[in-house]
């Protein structure tokens, strides 16, 4: 089960909030000073906790009123519910571990983040989100990534590694997606140039467990790369930006099935939040 650790503001001091969740269920328990327990259970990830506790949406340029983390059950790595990128706050939609079955190892945990304003725009685009359809074919994911949204993938290694190893894994995902598409010669040349730019941006170094990479598909269509708050540059190639994130959202061969399912659950919850 995922454990939710959090810091809350504007709550009475004796109140303690506890939450645990699996990939599909959240339980939030509030203990009062007289020992009584109020509990709520809901389908989806723990991100709804903020609205349950009456906390407001964060302003984009200010720290959110609610701060907390979600723990991945396979690795016990914690992910913040809100992530700041380029002085804008994004909400965690879903997360999951990338597991290499033939090696039987957890490589990294990834989480997908979106701005609240982009979630609102997506709510208007998908008035009736069909989670089953999202998990059956890639039509909705393709449409999602064609929108001018800032979408971030936060990646945290589950073990010590190096940038060459991680880079080569990302490159294999991109090359595989390129082979599966019917690209013209010119389009293929453009993709290969983007892959070379992506490769060049990686600094050769060792990477410790529980350090942070953030890859952002910008609304302009580039892929911004950040490691531990250090800007590694932006690949100005729309195919690279879209397909990097699509490798985690394509139900035919997702890089992390756990993340895909949790992201689908998160989208279903967030898009129905105001209904």
Automatic annotation (TrEMBL):
Sequence ranges assigned to domain Chalcone isomerase in this UniProt record: 91-259
Domain of life: Eukaryota
Molecular functions (GO terms): intramolecular lyase activity
Gene3D superfamilies: 1.10.890.20, 3.50.70.10
Pfam families assigned: Chalcone_2
Protein's UniProt name: Chalcone isomerase domain-containing protein
Source organism phylogeny: Eukaryota, Fungi, Fungi incertae sedis, Mucoromycota, Mucoromycotina
């Amino acid at each position: 089960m995922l454990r939710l650790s959090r810091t809350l503001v504007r709550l009475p001091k004796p109140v303690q909030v506890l939450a645990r969740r699996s990939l599909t269920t959240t339980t939030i328990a509030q203990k009062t000073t007289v020992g009584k327990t109020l509990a709520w259970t809901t389908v989806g990830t723990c991100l709804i906790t903020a609205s349950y506790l009456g906390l407001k949406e964060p302003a984009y340029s200010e720290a959110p009123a609610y701060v907390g983390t979600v723990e991945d059950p396979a690795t016990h790595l914690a992910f913040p519910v809100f992530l700041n990128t380029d002085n804008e706050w994004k909400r965690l939609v879903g997360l999951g571990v990338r597991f290499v079955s033939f090696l039987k190892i957890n490589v990294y945990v990834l989480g997908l983040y979106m701005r609240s304003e982009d979630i609102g725009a997506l709510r208007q685009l998908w008035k009736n989100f069909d989670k089953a359809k999202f998990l059956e074919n890639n039509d909705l994911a393709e449409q999602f990534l064609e929108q001018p949204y800032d979408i971030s993938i936060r990646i945290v290694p589950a073990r010590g590694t190096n940038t060459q190893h991680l880079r080569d894994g990302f490159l294999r995902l991109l090359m595989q997606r390129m082979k599966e598409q019917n690209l013209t010669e010119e389009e293929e040349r453009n993709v290969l140039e983007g892959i070379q730019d992506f490769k060049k941006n990686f600094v050769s170094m060792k990477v410790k467990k529980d350090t942070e990479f953030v890859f952002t598909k910008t609304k302009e269509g580039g892929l911004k790369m950040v490691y531990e708050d250090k800007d590694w540059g932006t690949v100005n190639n729309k195919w690279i930006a879209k397909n990097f994130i699509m490798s985690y959202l394509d139900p035919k061969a997702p890089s992390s099935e756990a993340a895909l399912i949790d992201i689908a659950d998160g989208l279903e919850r967030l898009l129905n939040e105001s209904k």
